[in-house]
Amino acid sequence: MNGNWQEEARVGTDTPVTVSVEQGRLVIEPVKG
Prior knowledge:
Elements: H1 5-9, E1 17-22, E2 25-30
């Protein structure tokens, strides 16, 4: 994925994330630990 969406979403490039599909949408969430 390209672009500067990480800054807008407050997810750094070194932040572990989970990616899922819900109701036809791509959902990217930081890993809770």
